[in-house]
Amino acid sequence: MPTSRAPQISQHDHVTLVQLGDEYKNLDEHSLEDISTILLDLAKSIDPPLMVLDLSHTKFFGSAFIELMFRTWNKIKVRDGGKFSISGLSKTCREVVEVTHIDRLWPVFETSEEAIESLRNET
């Protein structure tokens, strides 16, 4: 069942932080309806195009969420100076990211603070 709660979105030194709360513990294709629109709209509109996706509360994500991250990243990377990173991965999610080599495309950080600092220093 899709969630009706939006992720928490905030700005930190020109970096947009998207934090997925407890309601996003399991990100399978059935739970992505609301968040898909939010992430893709943000990817097109944030200025500067710097985004950290914090998955600290997420314990599982499937291929549909991986596709959503790729779509989000693709909209960000084509914009001048566009950067995307993820933070707060659980052990299981980190294994998925490493096995699929996503960690070679996007920086992965332990905390959102580290991710924000890294993107802020690149501008």
Automatic annotation (TrEMBL):
<feature type="domain" description="STAS">
    <location>
        <begin position="5"/>
        <end position="119"/>
    </location>
</feature>
<dbReference type="InterPro" id="IPR002645">
    <property type="entry name" value="STAS_dom"/>
</dbReference>
<dbReference type="Pfam" id="PF01740">
    <property type="entry name" value="STAS"/>
</dbReference>
<protein>
    <recommendedName>
        <fullName>STAS domain-containing protein</fullName>
    </recommendedName>
</protein>
<dbReference type="InterPro" id="IPR036513">
    <property type="entry name" value="STAS_dom_sf"/>
</dbReference>
<dbReference type="GO" id="GO:0043856">
    <property type="term" value="F:anti-sigma factor antagonist activity"/>
</dbReference>
